[in-house]
Amino acid sequence: MDKAGALSYRIAPAVSTLLRGADRRGPDFMQLSRFKTGAWQGRDRAEQYHRGTLGAPEIFQRLRHDVYIRYIQRHAAPGARILDLGCGTGLIAIALHDLGYKVVACDVSAGMLEKLADDKGDRDIELRRGDGFAIPAADREFDMVVSRMFIQHFPDWPQILAEKARVTRPGGIVLFDFGNREHLAACDPDLGVADDFPYANSEKNPGKFYAVADEAEMRDRAAACGLDVVQIAPHGLLLYNGFLWKKLGGDGVREFNARLDSILASPEASALLLMIEETLVPLLPKSACYGNITVLRRGGGRIEPPQPAQRGMFSWLRGAGLK
Predict the structure, then answer these.
(1) pLDDT in tens, 253-269
(2) DSSP secondary structure string for all residues of 272-303
(3) Residue ranges with strand state E in 196-307
(4) 323: burial class by Cβ within 10 Å (0-12, 13-18, 19+)?
(5) Which of 205, 107, 197, 86 is nearest to 149 (CA)?
(6) In this structure, are strands 291-298 and 227-235 parallel, antiparallel, or unpaired?
(7) Tens of pLDDT, residues 93-110
């Protein structure tokens, strides 16, 4: 596609090639792998994703967009070179560009990048097609690497984390959202497995799979990648909270979100929510929230790729990282 800021294709192996011979890894693995690989490839699915994100409840927009952007601003000044990995249709990439950052947006889906290319207009955002397991970028290329709703899609997320560290300069920041295992332990370790909670830490349900980690595991994984923990902050007290979901059920939560939508239409109420989320929520125990925002700083040493918990598992996804 020939556009201003055209797609810089560094194409991963074809999905069909990756899938051949992979069935020996087991049915749950294959189901999850096929789903993650093919879910958002086409332009029609990219449009569906974009509409769904923009049409999400107001609480989602405030927490998954506004608060997330403020965390980025806290750790990088305008002018910083930022990689938005798993960028999707570019809602975060465009917002960062408009705030004065130099943005490279990367996704494995041609459909997502085509939609972003249309929406960004003449903005100077470089687009690259590639995946999180083999990021199409030079070592130490970026001041910051961010991802939103991306890395936790993959059971072998530490391999993506190592790639993020590789392309971040010493002293640079790696920032992403993730799931708190402490929340599941306090609420229900099987949350989402047998109920309609939107996420589950089980490979048996690929559509709902989201990885989680406790603070000790995240610190260990970060250290193995040469990353120091700056902050692991509980995030999204009222968004996909397991305690609330168990109390109200899916229909009750949807009604709750609808009421919040009407309240957050007030600028004062929206500002109050952001203030609480930024000042109070990070002080709560991690068990209080399903999600967190993790902020890591790259040290100066060499990055050693981590070994996955089960050797070889998901290694073929080096060509198929997907939002």
Answers:
(1) 999 989 998 999 899 99
(2) HHHHHHHHTGGGS-GGG-SEEEEEEEE-SSPP
(3) 212-213, 227-235, 291-298
(4) buried
(5) 86
(6) antiparallel
(7) 999 999 999 999 999 888
